[in-house]
């Protein structure tokens, strides 16, 4: 039963025989999503540069907590980019 469920789930994301994992290829191109991710991050960085004064003032309200939050955000972004890069053939 579990093999059937796994095979059905894998057929939704891959093309090929679900019993032969080595022969599967992705239907979508991860480069397109990587480009969108980088474009969005560039837009957010540009907005942050334009608002650097108010953001710096708000950040200094509690720099330790805000530093931990920014650090966790950075680690998460890098992890998701790494996972997207691993989808490349």
> How do the helices and strands follow one another from N- to C-terminus?
HEEHHH
Give the beta-strand count: 2
User: Which class do the helix and strand fractions yield?
Assistant: mainly alpha
Strands of the biggest beta sheet: in what spatial order? Answer: 1-2
Question: Number of folding domains?
Answer: 1
Beta-strand proportion: under 5%
Number of helices: 4
pLDDT averaged over residues: 83
- The dominant shape is elongated
Helix percent band: over 70%
Low-pLDDT segments: none
Radius of gyration: 20 Å
Biggest sheet statistics: 2 strands, antiparallel
How would you summarize this macromolecular structure in one to three sentences?
By secondary structure, this protein is mainly alpha-helical. Helices cover 73% and strands 4% of the residues.
Write the layout of secondary structure elements.
Elements: H1 2-13, E1 14-15, E2 25-26, H2 30-50, H3 52-59, H4 63-86
Antiparallel strand pairs: 1-2
Features:
4 helices, 73% helix, elongated
Can you walk me through this structure?
With 89 residues, the protein is mainly alpha-helical. It is 73% helix and 4% strand. It has helices at 2-13, 30-50, 52-59, 63-86; strands spanning 14-15, 25-26. The chain has a two-stranded antiparallel sheet with strand order 1-2. It is elongated and about 50 Å long.
């Amino acid at each position: 039963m579990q093999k059937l469920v796994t095979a059905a789930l894998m057929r939704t994301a891959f093309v090929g025989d679900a019993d032969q994992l080595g022969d599967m290829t992705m239907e979508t191109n991860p480069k397109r999503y990587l480009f969108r991710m980088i474009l969005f991050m560039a837009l957010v960085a540009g907005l942050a540069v334009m608002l650097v004064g108010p953001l710096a003032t708000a950040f200094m309200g509690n720099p330790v907590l805000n530093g931990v939050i920014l650090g966790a955000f950075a680690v998460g972004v890098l992890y998701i980019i790494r996972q997207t890069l691993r989808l490349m053939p």
